[in-house]
Amino acid sequence: QDNSFEQFIINYCNEKLQQIFIELTLKEEQEEYIREGIEWTHIEYFNNAIICDLIENNQTGILAMLDEECLRPGTVTDETFLEKLNQVCATHQHFESRMSKCSRFLNDTSLPHSCFRIQHYAGKVMYQVEGFVDKNNDLLYRDLSQAMWKASHSLIKALFPEGNPAKINLKRPPTAGSQFKASVATLMKNLQTKNPNYIRCIKPNDKKAAHIFNDALVCHQIRYLGLLENVRVRRAGYAFRQAYEPCLERYKMLCKQTWPHWRGPARDGVEVLFNELEIPEEEFSFGRSKIFIRNPRTLFKLEDLRKQRLEDLATLIEKIYRGWKCRTRFLLMKKSQIVIASWYRRYS
Q1: CA 257 to CA 210: how far, in whole Å?
Q2: Of 21, 173, 182, 239, whose CB has the highest number of CB atoms within 10 Å?
Q3: What is the distance between the alpha carbons of residues 254 and 53, in angstroms, rounded to a whole number?
Q4: In order of start, what are the domains of the chain with their CATH numbers?
Q5: Count of other CB atoms within 10 angstroms of residue 131
Q6: Highest mean pLDDT out of 19-28, 41-50, 285-294
Q7: Could you give the angle at which helices 62-71 and 176-192 cross, rounded to 10 degrees?
Q8: What pTM was estimated for this model as a whole?
Q9: What mean pLDDT value characterizes the chain?
Q10: Where are the stretches annotated Actin-binding (predicted)?
Q11: How many degrees, rounded to 5, is the angle at CA 213 between CA 209 and CA 216?
């Protein structure tokens, strides 16, 4: 019921993961259609980059304000941190606080004075400001590290490498928030280099019981996970896309004109192939560098035809090999018979 600093950074990570999900599905897919010259009507969706900026902006983000409070001289409390947030974030549409002097929240009795609320992509979450400063400092005093490093037990010594006198750093250790932000940035950079597959899990009820579906809970999750926008993009778009060269290489055996070799541009070869297979024109579109197939059943049909053709080719190869083997054996036997007959006539 009470969300503090720990839940705040967990939700920040969830926001970043949702952002990369949007980037690699909704945004990237629609931009690809435009790049490839495919006729496309843009589908609107909520981009949570504005919420990520509210949290992680280097100047006006909540984490930056928290670090500034932890590092500045003078009396620092959770209340002074909340005051700073109210000054900097008061006009932000996803930030809410009773102390922000904003008329929208002055009479909001569901929002205590010692809390602030963020409208995340998954809904509004209220955070108790108490403990934010202390938890963000996460200070491990140098004398404690040095004492542990001098321990005779090898494991304890290994756990406190910063206590080594040769590696003493007089700089203030990084805050918990900045460390977590750096870790999330590294994770995002790593994910951007991959081709991730997403599995969205829907919680059917809050009781963890079988065969019970709470319609309101399920619909709420479908909305905030962005599944509605995903379905709209998928239904309006194309299920499969592939560059012309690998597409022609994979399916060229299905057409006499492209098998075994196609002399010419790969796009022309794919066009000849699809015309030969009599695939309806509404089932595919030609982009600048890729072929786009609308329905999975068209792709399944191509795969079934390819599988059957490979079996036919395997049978043909087997037939030719058996014929060659039998003919070779026959010619050898014929040659031997001639030699034996000639020697027999000479003997007789």
Answers
A1: 57
A2: 21
A3: 52
A4: 5-138+174-193 (1.20.58.530), 144-169 (no CATH), 244-347 (3.30.70.1590)
A5: 13
A6: 285-294
A7: 150
A8: 0.67
A9: 85
A10: 184-206
A11: 125
